[in-house]
Each structure stands twice: as C-alpha cells, then as structure tokens.
Design brief:
The complex is a heterodimer. Chain A is mostly helical. Chain A has 17 helices and four strands. In chain A, strand 3 and strand 4 form a beta hairpin. Helices cover 74% and strands 1% of the residues of chain B. Classes of the chains: A mainly alpha, B mainly alpha.
C-alpha cells in the first residue's frame, strides 16, 4: 500500500487528508452540477433519450446506500431490511401531503421531508432496540424480518394506505413559487427537462448528506462505531456505551432513507407497498458492498455504477449489441434480445465483480489494511505447519 | 366439523408444509455451520429441483390414472434427477465462486450468493416462463383415515400428506446419522469447529466443504420434487418465498444446528397454517416474522443454538 502510494508520486498523496478530500469533493460536485447540460448532447443518443429518468432513481438509491453504509459499513451491523425505512419515509410524506391520506391535516412538502427524516430515525431506534443483544447473522435475520413486516403492514392496512392500490397524488415541493417537476426549465435559449429541478434537489440533499456523514464519521460517535465494529468487548471496556452507539447507528442510518423516501414519493407521485420489497434492500446492500464498504466515495461510486448498470446499461445492452452486430456483420449479435435476461446479466455482474474484487471497487484504507493483515496471519500459520 | 377436528386438520397441513421447510432449512444450516455463509442461492436451487422434476414428469405424459408401475418408475426418476441436478448445481457454485472467496471479507460471498440467486431465477424464467405452471397431480387422492381405516371422522389425512412425511422423515434421520456416525460426518463437524485445526489433522477441507454443498443441494432437490407433487405448482419465484421461510426456520432453530433446523421448520409450518386459518392469510407473513423477532429477543441464538460465551 505504502509502496504503491509513493509510486504514484508525492503530488497527490503528499497533500494532507483534508485537502485531498476537498479536491475530491470539488470534482464530484462540479461534475454533478454540469451533468444535466451534458445529458442532452452527449448521453441521449447512446441511451435513446434523456438519461434523467435513469439518473434520478439511481441517485435516490445511492442516497439510500449512503445511509445503509452508516449501519453496515461504519457500525458493522448487517441490515437486510433497510427498505423498511425507505417505505416509512415515503409513507410519512404521503400521509402528510396526499389527498388520500387519513390524517385530518395536510402539510407542505418541506415540512413532510423533515417529518419523514424524523419518523424514519425514530423507527430506526424502535426496530433497532430488539436487535441489541443479537450478533452477526441473527441480527441480519431480524432486520430482514422487519423488512418483510413493514411493507406487508402497509399493504394490509388498506383503510389508511389504500393497500395494493397505493397512494396518489403526493405533494410536490415549491421552489421560488413554482411546483417542482411540472414544467421544463428555460435558461436563455436552453430548455432543460421538467425533471432537472428534481435532479438538483436530490444532488443538494446528497451533498448535505455526504457532508453530514463525513462529519459523523470523524466525530467521537464515528470512532465509537468503528471501535464497536472491530471488537465489541474491547469497545465496551474502553467506556463506549454499546446500547447508545448501536441505536444511534440505526437512527442515523434510517434517517437518510427517510429523505430518500420522501423525495421518491413526491417524484413518482405514487407509492404502493411493492416498491419497498426485499429486492430493494438487497440492491442497496449490493451497492454498499460493491463500491467498497465503509468508504463513502466507494459507496457513492458503487451506487451509481450498479444503478446505472441495472437501469440503463442492461436495458440498452441488446440495442447496443444489435447495432454492433449489424455494423460488423455478425448475425448472432444483430438479432439478440436480452429483455428476458435482466436478472441474469445483473446476477452475473455481481458474481464476476465480487470474485474479481472481493473488497469492493474502492475499499476504505482501513479495510484494505485489514485484508492485508489477514493474509500475513494465514501465512504465519502456514509457516508453523 | 368440531373445533378440535379443525385444529387437528390445520396441524396436519402445517406439519406437512413444515417438513418441507425443514428439508430446505437443513441446506442453509449445513452450509452456514461449515463456512458461516448465508447461502442466498439455496432457495433458487430448490426451485430448480421442482423444475427438473416437472420436466421429467412431463416427459412421461403421466396422469393420476397411469399404470402404477410406470407412475412409480417415473416418480423415482424425477426424484433422482432433481436430487442429482441440484446437488451438482450447489457444489458447482461452491467450486466456481465461494471457494475463491474463502478468505475474502465476510460480505463478499453473501453478495456472490445473491448474484447466483438472480442467475438461477432467470434460468427458471427461461425454462417455464413468468407465470405459475401446474405440476400434474399424480398422487392418489385417497383419504387414509376414512377410506382405509374406516374411521368416522371429518379430518382428512390423504396419501399426499403421508407421502411428504414418508419421504421427509427418512431423509432427516439419514442426514443426522450421516453427520453424527460416519467418518465424513465427523470431518464435517471438525471443519465446522475449526477449519485450520481440521486441516492440520489431515482432513481435506475442500472435499469436506464441497460434500456439504452436495448434500445441501440434494436435500433442496428432493424438497423441490416433494413440493411440486404436494402443492401441484411450479413457479420461478417459489424459491424466494420458500427460501426465506426456510432460512427463517434455520435461524429460529439455531443456525448450524441440524435438529434445530427441523424443529424450526415444523414450528414455522404450524404457525403459518394456524395463522392462515384462524387469522387471515394476509397477516401470516407478519405473524411468522413477528414471532421470529420475539424468540430472537429472548433467545438470541435461536431455540437450540448454543449460547456461546463471548470470546475475548
């Protein structure tokens, strides 16, 4: 690791951690801000239309992955039912803003957004509490159980949630007197799609989340999470309150999915319990692990790579292969149809990526060091034999 | 029907389904016990078992009125095919992917297993399409209590229910004997306890782990065969629900514990049947998982799991 770092030259790695972070953040931010302008001329031809419809859900799931990373990556608690909090966030917003809501009052979207954040965090504590005594995979199965129970409850409480019919419409946020998502945006002669304001809203929430999560990671609480992940007994004997630390991990992790849920409900204007099934929890977990668990930039990259692959590439793959086939004159490729093979492609991608890079695409430095240490330990044992 | 008779009827249904869950749960628990991996692809292996059996059965063009020797031959072939295909499939996945990841971070094999579960699901989708397929009803619909024993009761205990128990119980007993009495079983237990120490004692770790996957796959295959005949349906998504229930059963009993997996399977089967009948099928899943959570809170390592003192 250190040899590799020196080989790359003192320029980048010689910078202090803080400056490196600021530069990384700046580049990511710049790209995120100009993306809607690149979308039309550069990407639309490749994907047969605006990619906003792909990017918005992808970014929302990435936001979920950032929250799950707190629970799984920082605190080391394997959560297989994270979609439950996403559902709770979305239904909170629907209850507060939809005309179908059973509540006697309505609120503004912005109030609902904060309420969703708070309600999701509260449920993080409520659903986290029974798992406090559990370790490892028992914890995973209990979180999985909650992930199955919550959407079922929303499905079955038809009198309040509309059951399988779902809830629609849902309140939209108002910005500068305009309702977001209804009209295209005109900047001079340039026309951006109606979805672009949504994009910027998600990017803004994402930036605030990333800032908050990095601050959390570097705080006393963040260090307590990592200590707990590495060794619970040692952490407890150093004076870390395990109950409080675990519950805060669940609450903080859940709160970010509250944001994502609120925005999700408002963008798509329709929610039903089937949008929050186990497969969503699995997808988000795959994003976290694939990107590089514990490393916020890795998770961000993993979320975008996996999401774009799932929503964009695998849908367009047959079209691309067909056009390659017809230009090169390969008849097999020219008639290929992969529309029935979405799961297969996604599954293969997961397997190949994991076998190729088990530590994820961008592992955190600490995890890379851990893996290395494991190898030397095994070697030492081999030497004894 | 009296209340008591209804209860007995519901229990019969629950136990038959529970026996099926137990067979699948054993595959989870065997694999978890030996390499601490939640093998998410296991439910899909069970689905492939049902599909293989269905393909064989359809080859013979059987109905319930086919001549009994042909019927028995075809069913035996279907059982063998499903068992062999699933055993090889499960062991093949281990050889291809999990073995390479044995020293990787703990969650990497988990995601790989999820990847394989998607791949197998898609293969199922190619095989019989997206909608549920009928599995021919081949077992005689004779009621044992009324038609054979001439009892005057409203309780139905058919040949079908008997068939599930007749196939499941010997498999469970045989597996327990294998693990507790044979040399290979001993090797499996040793590997589960401490892989490195077992290797130092001359146990072939790769062979033992491969064998565990082979056995788990074979059990899933036979469960797939039985499920097809008992439930008369095959669906590419049956592995997901069945697998989830079975995995819950394995954890409920104490994961890594064979008796626990069987007990967990039966409990989940009975609870589901009771909730289906007395409450509402719509609430069955929340009830099952709710009870799981409650048991976990009071017995954090499952019903029969060892309460391991914390290692420092």
């Amino acid at each position: 690791m250190s040899a590799e770092a020196t080989a790359r030259g003192a320029g980048w790695s010689g910078l202090p951690e803080r400056q490196r972070r600021v530069i990384q953040f700046g580049i990511a931010l710049l790209f995120a801000l100009i993306y809607p302008f690149l979308d039309g001329p550069l990407l639309a031809p490749l994907f047969g239309g605006s990619t906003m419809g792909i990017m918005i859900p992808v970014l929302l799931y990435t936001l979920l992955a950032l929250g799950l990373n707190i629970v799984v990556g920082y605190a080391g608690l394997l959560d297989l039912g994270y979609a439950a909090f996403f559902a709770i966030g979305a239904y909170t917003t629907a209850f507060l803003t939809s005309p179908q809501s059973p509540l006697p009052f309505r609120t503004d979207f912005w109030v609902a957004l904060m309420a969703s954040w708070l309600v999701a965090a509260t449920f993080g504590v409520i659903l986290g509490a029974p798992t406090l005594r559990l370790r490892g995979d028992y914890l995973a199965i209990v979180t999985l159980a909650f992930g199955e129970i919550v959407p079922r409850v929303f499905l079955n409480l038809e009198q309040w949630t509309g059951g399988a019919r779902g809830m629609n419409p849902i309140g939209r946020p108002e910005l500068f007197g305009y309702e977001v998502g209804l009209f295209p945006v005109h900047i001079g002669s340039l026309v951006l799609g109606a979805q672009v304001p949504w994009y910027y809203l998600i990017v803004a929430v994402g930036i605030v989340s990333i800032w908050a999560i990095t601050r959390l990671h570097d705080s006393r609480l963040g260090r307590a999470w990592i200590a707990m992940r590495e060794d619970e007994v040692a952490a407890a004997s150093m004076g870390i309150n395990l109950v409080q630390t675990k519950l805060l991990a669940f609450a903080m992790g859940a709160s970010f999915s509250g944001f994502a849920g609120a925005i999700f409900a408002s963008i798509f204007q329709f929610i039903d319990p089937f949008q929050f099934e186990f497969s969503i929890s699995i997808m988000v977990l795959a994003m976290v692990i694939l990107g590089g668990i514990g490393n916020i930039w890795g998770v961000l990259a993993g979320g975008i790579v996996l999401g774009v692959f799932d929503r964009g590439v695998s849908a367009q793959l047959s079209a691309w292969l067909r056009s390659i086939g017809s230009t090169l004159g390969i008849p097999v490729l020219a008639t290929i149809d992969l529309s029935q093979s979405r799961l297969l492609i996604f599954g293969l991608a997961l397997v190949i990526l994991m076998v190729w890079r088990p530590e994820g695409l961008f592992p955190s430095a600490r995890r890379r060091a851990e893996l290395h240490q494991d190898e030397t330990e095994v070697a030492a044992h081999g030497g004894l034999a | 029907m009296h209340d008591a008779e209804i209860l007995v009827q519901v229990l019969i249904l629950g136990l038959a389904n529970g026996a099926l869950f137990a067979l699948i749960a054993l595959g989870y628990t065997l694999v978890y016990g030996i390499i601490e991996l939640i093998n998410f692809a296991h439910g899909e292996v069970y689905m492939i078992g049902t599909f293989t059996a269905l393909t064989v059965v359809l080859q013979f063009g059987l109905t319930r009125n086919s001549p009994p020797p042909l019927l028995i031959l075809a069913l035996a072939l279907a059982l063998i095919a499903a068992t062999v295909v699933c055993a090889l499939l499960n062991a093949g996945i281990e050889r291809l992917a999990y073995r390479r990841l044995r020293n990787a971070p703990r969650l990497a094999p988990l995601i790989t297993a999820i990847g394989f579960s998607f791949i197998l699901m898609n293969i199922g989708l190619y095989w019989y399409g997206a909608s549920q397929v009928r599995f021919p009803d081949l077992l005689p619909s004779v009621d044992i209590l009324r038609d054979w024993l001439h009892l005057n009761t409203a309780i139905a205990f058919t040949v079908k229910d008997l068939f599930v128990l007749l196939l499941t119980v010997p498999l469970l007993v045989g597996l327990n004997l294998f693990v507790s009495r044979t040399r290979l079983g001993k090797a499996m237990r040793a590997t589960a306890q401490d892989r490195e120490a077992a290797a130092l004692m001359g146990i072939d770790i790769n062979l033992t782990i491969g064998l565990t996957f082979l056995i788990g796959g074979a059990l899933a295959g036979s469960a797939g065969f039985i499920s097809g005949l008992y439930n008369n349906s095959a669906w590419f998504q049956q592995g997901f629900r069945g697998g989830l229930m079975a995995f819950t059963a394995a954890v409920l009993g104490g994961i890594g514990n064979l008796t626990g997996a069987v007990l967990g399977g039966l409990i989940i089967g009975v609870i589901s049947a009771l909730s289906d009948f007395y409450l509402d099928p719509r609430w069955t899943q929340p009830v099952v998982f709710g009870i799981l959570v409650i048991i976990m809170v009071f017995r954090p390592s499952g019903l029969l799991g060892e309460q391991v003192p914390e290692k420092v």
